[in-house]
């Protein structure tokens, strides 16, 4: 079984081998952006590059970013402590392309990493694509669906709405359609009984999103309008603790070795037993 440390390293190695510069996690408290208090996504530290205000130093980057989702647009606080797969602080594995590769390679890399490198069961993977939004004059992401069709049968490529499949950093800022990868980690008997397809995006604790591939193409302005970005950008984010859960055959993020050493230490200090 791969440890969490090995899983994180294999992600970085995979993208380093494909020309990505590996950078450190940015601080979680944001200093120069009045629109955001805490880092809520891996792309925050690249916001000015995405908007075209800063020069592109490396066209390809990958990292593991510590994120805090406790306020604002992306707020998981109500879920924490109630379910098995949300956290106040979590790590997001991400790869970026700034004006370099776009949807095709982003999808190829993601599939290759999960299915070939980590050898997760392909039959347990589902993907979603943006269904479009006539109100905003945005079309269905047929392009992404077309690339996915190389790997998955049509019925496991699911349309998703603006809430789930159009990612925005906050009320303003970089945004674009996205494609999510979901995994079904239920026991085989359960899978026979209920098709995983019907459980995607239904808040089932064992049919969960693990990776979001965002195809950044717009900047949301304060008046709500969408302005095209100077470069097309790939921004992906994978839930590290969720990936560890899937890889380590657990049904809770808290049962992975990301948390068990800490929990054991707390048991020792408090003399209390950890119980679910
Ligand atoms: N920005 C996207 C997210 O946070 C992908 O990295 O989900």
Radius of gyration: 19 Å
Name of the CATH class: Alpha Beta
Looking at CATH, which topology would you report? BirA Bifunctional Protein, domain 2
Ligand set: serine
Strand content: 25-35%
> Which structural class should the secondary elements be placed in?
alpha+beta
Intertermini distance: 23 Å
- Tally of separate domains: 1
Helix content: 10-25%
Which descriptors would you attach to this protein?
single chain, 276 residues, alpha+beta, BirA Bifunctional Protein, domain 2, 25% helix, 27% strand
Short summary:
The chain has one domain (4-270): BirA Bifunctional Protein, domain 2 (2-Layer Sandwich), CATH 3.30.930.10.
Please give a structural write-up.
The chain has one domain: BirA Bifunctional Protein, domain 2. 25% of the residues lie in helices and 27% in strands. The protein is built from eight helices and nine strands. Strands 1, 2, 3, 4, 5, 6, 7, 8 and 9 form a nine-stranded mixed beta sheet that branches. The longest helix is centred in the middle third of the chain and has 15 residues. The relative contact order is 0.16. The mean pLDDT is 96. The site of serine (SER) has 10 residues, from strand 8 and strand 9.
């Amino acid at each position: 079984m791969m440890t969490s440390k090995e899983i994180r390293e294999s992600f970085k190695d995979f993208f380093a081998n494909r020309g990505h510069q590996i950078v450190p996690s940015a601080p979680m408290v944001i200093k120069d952006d009045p629109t955001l208090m805490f880092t809520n996504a891996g792309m925050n530290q690249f916001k000015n590059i995405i908007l075209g205000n800063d020069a592109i130093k490396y066209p390809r980057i990958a990292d593991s970013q510590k994120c805090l989702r406790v306020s604002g647009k992306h707020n998981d606080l109500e879920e924490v402590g109630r379910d098995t797969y949300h956290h106040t602080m979590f790590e997001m594995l991400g790869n970026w392309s700034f004006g370099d590769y776009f949807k095709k390679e982003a999808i190829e890399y993601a599939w290759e990493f999960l299915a070939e490198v980590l050898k997760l069961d392909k039959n347990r993977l589902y993907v979603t694509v943006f269904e479009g939004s006539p109100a905003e004059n945005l079309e269905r992401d047929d392009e992404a669906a077309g690339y996915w069709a190389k790997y998955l049968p049509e019925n496991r490529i699911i349309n998703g709405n603006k809430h789930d499949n159009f990612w925005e950093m906050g009320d303003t800022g970089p945004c674009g359609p996205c494609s999510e990868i979901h995994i079904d980690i239920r026991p085989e008997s359960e899978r026979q009984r209920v098709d995983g397809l019907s459980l995607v995006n239904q808040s089932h604790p064992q049919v969960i999103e693990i990776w979001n591939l965002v195809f950044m193409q717009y900047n949301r302005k304060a008046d709500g309008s969408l302005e095209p970005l100077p470069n097309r950008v790939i921004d992906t984010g994978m839930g590290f603790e969720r990936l560890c859960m899937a890889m380590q055959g657990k049904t809770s993020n808290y049962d992975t070795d990301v948390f068990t050493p800490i929990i054991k230490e707390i048991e020792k200090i408090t003399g209390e037993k950890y119980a679910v």
